[in-house]
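Give me structure tokens for this 316-residue protein.
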Amino acid sequence: MSPIQNTTSSSIIFLLTGVPGLEAFHTWISIPFCFLYATALSGNSLILFAIITQPSLHEPMYYFLSMLSTTDLGLSVSTLATMLGIFWFNAREISFNACLSQMFFIKLFTVMESSVLLAMAFDRFVAISNPLRYAIILTDSRISQIGVTIVIRGTLVLTPMVALLKRLSYCRSHVLHHSYCFHPDVMKLSCTDTRINNAVGLTAMISTVGVDSILILLSYVLIIRTVLSIASPAERKKSFSTCVSHIGAVAVFYIPLISLSFVHRFGKRAPPYVHTMIANTYLLIPPVMNPIIYSVKTKQIRKAVIKILSSAGRKN
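Here you go.
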């Protein structure tokens, strides 16, 4: 057993973990993760570039999509350095303050993604239930205010959760069980009472991701009710088809999140590498899948992306 250390937070060095039991295969394991990161970064950058440069996409729906791509880029970049550093160079050390910073940004972009998905649900509700006032309700200034509110909300809710970790003493092993700093992981290493931290962390997630999921569900209940009130079957199909991409984005965000929660709570007998792989992929699935979903299911995005790629091909 390693000697017990009671150290101040400023001097702590945590050790991140790759895939337990498969350390010899880290180089090979890094290949699919490199592919996922490349897909996420290039896909979201392309969507963002298309929305910025194509005047036909300067509409509320696509402004919200640009917010989603921005949060996906932030989420990918937040874990890129530590995850690939472990797989390629076995660079496991991370200082306490760097760990808190990474944790904050991972949580912030996760909460922001949830908030953006809620804003997109509201956008679809307004577009379907009140199309004549759509442009009046969702003006450019209002969309900007929504974007700023999303950032401020996440920052205010998450700052206490992360800052409270500084009050804890860490006298146990400094080995974390993931390839990035995960809030429950850090708390488990403390030898002081973490009940306040647990309560604040749970409150933060319920008041953001939890509330957002309920409001998204409520939005779709109202959307379905509105769509069913439309007399023409063709118009009903057309109205609901505008929601398909958003439903896909909601699914790829919440299903991995719920799966991770279930594995941590009920999968205690599962091999350690199962927890690690699910935790790693849960942060990468939304950034990888969202650009694919919107490019395949949204004709305007698909046309804009093809136009940009064709233009780049001609220049080469």
